[in-house]
């Protein structure tokens, strides 16, 4: 059985320049590489450690209820762990993201915000607060 060495989420954005500005320049993902071919562009951004979270529909509904108060996410949602959810949420709002839900403490003791970002991605910005009590 082959061992996976990297998880790469590939997003096709209608406004490539805006998506690149938002994720690289505002959210702060480091640029690893960029390529141009036949007038098209791709930039690979380092998002740190990657995990693949698999959930069933019922649990996804629960997460949405906790973080937002209603079902809002599609079948893919991208979550970024940050040091300060409130500050990053404010920065992303200023950069054009639509805040769906302000940072809220979850039952699993993280501070999570929900946003709609460029490239039609729903984002969770989360800050780990420590072990749940």
Characterization of this structure:
InterPro entries: Glyas_Bleomycin-R_OHBP_Dase (IPR029068), Glyas_Fos-R_dOase_dom (IPR004360), VOC_core (IPR037523). This is VOC family protein. Residues 5-128 form the VOC domain. With 133 residues, the protein is an alpha+beta fold. The protein has one domain (16-128): 2,3-Dihydroxybiphenyl 1,2-Dioxygenase, domain 1 (Roll). The chain has 3 helices and 6 strands, in the order αββαβαβββ. The strands form 2 sheets. A 4-stranded mixed beta sheet has the order 3-6-5-4, with helices on one face. A two-stranded antiparallel ribbon has the order 1-2. The longest helix is centred in the N-terminal third of the chain and has 11 residues, at 16-26. The protein is globular, with a radius of gyration of 16 Å. The protein starts with 15 loop residues before the first helix and ends in a 5-residue tail after the last strand. The mean pLDDT is 94.
